[in-house]
Amino acid sequence: MTTSGIAAAQPATSITADGTYLVNVDLQPGTYVGDGATAGTCFWKRLWKVQTPADYPDPNYYIIASDNTALKPITVEIKATDVAFSAQNCGAWHLVPPQPNTGSAG
After folding, report:
1. Are 26 and 82 in contact (CB under 8 A)?
2. Which of 17, 63, 88, 93 has the most CB atoms around it within 10 Å of its CB?
3. CA-CA distance, 84 to 47, in Å (whole number)?
4. Which helix (H) or strand (E) covers residue 29, if one does?
5. Which tops the pLDDT comparison, 3 or 79?
6. Is the C-alpha dihedral spanning 51, 54, 60, 61 positive or negative?
7. Does residue 1 contact residue 30 with C-beta atoms inside 8 Å?
8. Which of 14-18, 35-39, 59-63, 77-81 has the lowest mean pLDDT?
9. Nearest to 77 by CA among 10, 8, 27, 4
10. Phi, psi of 9 (to 5 degrees)
11. How much of the chain, in percent, has pLDDT values that exceed 70?
């Protein structure tokens, strides 16, 4: 086996620009806190598939969860099973450490 000497890049733990990011490729799964809308409202969505021109034409079909909000800050759990995460006009997002399990169901 030969190697190129170039390590594969780790998925990011922050988002600084609008766009669509592939989970486990571009972005690590986990809980992210966003700054919130930079003007107007922030629109984010978790996707089970990134739509292509050959796919079913309704973009809402591919959404697992989404929100269009003016609240600040915003918290979203991006799951490892999500295919992608998309955000528009939301400012920066940052991965936050998981909360410790207290063993309590309530």
Report:
1. no
2. 93
3. 5
4. none
5. 79
6. negative
7. no
8. 35-39
9. 27
10. -70, 140
11. 89
| Strand locations in 23-104 (E) | 30-34, 42-47, 63-69, 74-78, 84-88, 93-96
| 32 to 3, 23, 36, 103: CA distances (angstroms) | 34, 13, 12, 23
Whose tokens are 């909360």? That residue is 99
Q: What is the pLDDT of residues 18-27, one digit of tens each?
A: 999 999 999 9
- Model pLDDT, residue 101: 75
Tokens of 48: 């089970």
Q: Cα(first)–Cα(last) distance of the chain, in Å? A: 51
**Positive or negative, the Cα torsion across 45, 90, 67, 40?**
negative
Burial class (CB in 10 A: 0-12, 13-18, 19+), 34: buried
Q: Are 40 and 105 in contact (CB under 8 A)?
A: no
Task: Dig out the tokens for 53 from the structure.
Answer: 């021109």
The tokens for 106 are 């309530």
